Amino acid sequence: MARSVWKGPFVDGFLFKKAEASRASGRNEVIKIWSRRSTILPQFVGLTFGVYNGHKFLPVQVTENMVGHKFGEFSPTRTFTGHASDKKSKRG
Amino acid sequence: MADTPILLAVIGRPHGVRGLVRVQCHAADPASLEGYDALFDDRGRRWTLRWRGEGIAELRDADGRVLADRDAAQAMVNQRLSVERAALPETDDGEFYHTDLIGLEAFEGDRSWGRVKAVHDFGAGTILEIGAGLMLPFTLACVPVVDLAGGRITVSLPDELEVPGELEDSVETGVTP
User: Fold this and answer.
1) Over the stretch A64-79, which tens digit does the pLDDT of each residue have?
2) φ/ψ (deg, to 5) at B62
3) What ipTM is given for this predicted complex?
4) Which among A41, A91, A92 has CB closest to B175?
């Protein structure tokens, strides 16, 4: 069952403090968080979070398209590393 | 690097009686397999591939002959199809094949962090897995230099943010984005 709209999105409060501190520093930082349940808000766009998956902190670079999703969606707890084959990536 | 075989597909069980086979494709775009002039199997034989359905393909050998029947297709089961690294198309500026990145040694100054073990993308940017579990975003800030010819990358590890004060306060709800 979906969360009621009148409640608004759920976010752990301390994430705001961390995000503000990261923005203020302006450095190349990863904000380590354990809060996989928190919703990604527009305030977090452009920041990089290290989201714990029970084993490691996976870097999550927040973009506009990720707003409304949960942090945990981008840090899978079970990973399958397929073949590299001809897959390619652009350096962000 | 130029002649490194790149695994693109694995041949599965036969399909029907006309020599078609099921193919498990590892390429980013399955349609791209038709564009290669030569796919090499484990025994070094040349093949070309044409898709005949979803996951079902027709293989032609170097002479242009298709697999004759189901028995010929059965003989191809579990053969891996690869291309030479040089056969892959050129990448755009700032774009890298994962297979090129894997194995590069990561240096920060003179300190080595190990080799790139894997390249991940879970939907939030590309991540390099280096050495014993170091996960690094593949960005200009964190990986300023990629030297494919030299077999090394230069990394700049991001700082870990520390926020003073109590962070275990109440959970906020009702925040409107």
Assistant:
1) 999 999 999 999 999 7
2) -65, -25
3) 0.89
4) A41
